[in-house]
Structure prediction request, 600 residues.
Amino acid sequence: MSEINILSEDLINKIAAGEVVERPASVVKELIENALDADATSIIVEIKNSGQDLIRITDNGKGMNEVDARKSVLRHATSKLKTVEDLFSIGTLGFRGEALASIAAISQFSLITKQKDQLEGFNLVLEGGQVISEGAIGCDQGTTIEIRNLFFNTPVRKKFLKTDAVELRHIIDVVTHYALLHESVDFKLTHENHELLNAPSMGDQRSNIASIYGISIAKELLEIDYEDDLVRIEGLICKPLNSRNDRNQQVLFVNNRWVRSKELTDAVYEGYKSRLFVNKHPIFVLSLTLNPHNVDVNVHPQKMEIKIEQINEVSKVVTQSVIKTLEKHNLIPLMDVESEALTMGAEVRKTYTFEPSQQTTLKVEETTASYSDSYDLGSYVTPEEEVIEKGDYNKISEPVKEVEQIVEKLPHMKIFGQVHKTFFVAETEGGVLFIDQHAAHERVMYEKFMKQFKDASVSVQELLQGGVLELTAAEKVLVEENIEELSVMGFSIEPFGGNTFILKSVPSVFGRLQSRDLFQVVLHELVIGRNTLQELKELIITRMACRSAVMAGDELTINEMTKILSDLQKTDFPYTCPHGRPTMIKTEAFELEKKFKRCG
Ligand SMILES: Nc1ncnc2c1ncn2[C@@H]1O[C@H](COP(=O)(O)OP(=O)(O)OP(=O)(O)O)[C@@H](O)[C@H]1O
Ligand SMILES: [Mg+2]
Prediction:
């Protein structure tokens, strides 16, 4: 007797539904995608009981005629794919012809639809996938789909739903994300008749984001618009200091599809590298357009995962466009004296009434500390390096009155001196700058070392006696695997029999002790496998920069301050230290006027 059964249509639909419809938000996603594919310019989503009692989506798209409406709820019924070739060049959000059939199989389903030239619409009602009624109905052009009692016949799935609040949040996420991308489409979301989102059609993406994320976030975002043969990248990203504690405001679209992509997200973070404070996450809404031939969307039933053929190249372009965008802008944070909160921007307020000071800056002789006793790099710098560094600073022999603006990144400023041996104070157009000496110098050193690493010109210091390293078996394998790379980083290592190795040289900015310590850190990280050697480079360079930079508490002369600032001006990103802390903040004269009650 044969033991193999052909599954019934009903069972097949339920199995398919299990893949397509994970939760109420999946229904919302599928129905919004259908509305967008039907060229709707208005999409209204109404929800009851977090989607479990009712999901109703009304669009003003092109609608369906009676024949197509009947077909639309059958499995493998789609107007979007015709040939096998189409599958490899998908330009619509849907393509499988599965969504409506899956949703209808596990709910009470009603469809009302009408095309432009029809006199009346058509209504189709199903329960658990079976048609229970159909007929003509008066309605506007477009389509309304109503889902009641989702999962009524799949109780196990229903049991796995999270709390109502979580399910509702997923729905809000879906509607928000599509509303963010489609600025010319009206999106409305209500829950129990309360409006949760109202994103009317807007002329541009920034206004659209303002209506969704709020004006204060939207006005601080920086625009990206980049195009080459491979990809077009459009959208908005935040300034590093406006980043958030969570990743909730990160959205990626590829060919108008909201996607999850670790590679592309990593590429954005790579662009922020050394500009973000620890555990901070950038806000970004980025839309990539690629040749559909190079994108496979048929990877996962929920169509959120994609495969991009030249993902490495595309990621590099994403990183570069983020870097370029951040570097293009003046990102000195403003200190809001009244609220003591930091805001970003550097525009001069119109109401500013102060005249810039005519006072000359402090002369070098007026500061008591000499370079060598105040600027102690001794423990971290080799004797030659120290001479070079000192020589560098001593080149500015005349008292410097003002720091010339070498590039536009930093404003013209006049240094007044140092407070608390920690901050420089400078006058600038429209206000006062406070500069964190350690953070500023750290940025200078970081970029200097980064360049050395990039050019493979890391200066090394030979260890005359050589450091003997006793390694574990796992460490030995890792060291042998990475011996070339490690030597590029300045650690040259030679085998000495068995598990013993000799550390012959170390990056020269360190004294021996630190370097050996650092090598142990590198090794430890490699062993636990959390970081690749590439990521460790970043860690090492950041540490080197931190250790070699002037510290809070170091007393500096005006010459030294000027040198640090003119070096800072030449860096790619002078606004934060490599850990993402600001190097400087500005208090506007306008704010001081307010504080002193000089203006109404
Ligand atoms: N809101 C709508 N307006 C107009 N036509 C629609 C709408 N929703 C669905 N359709 C039609 O019904 C068909 C079936 O929709 P369904 O969502 O099941 O499949 P699909 O969108 O083609 O593919 P996928 O399963 O990947 O979503 C669509 O191809 C489209 O022709
Ligand atoms: Mg669809």
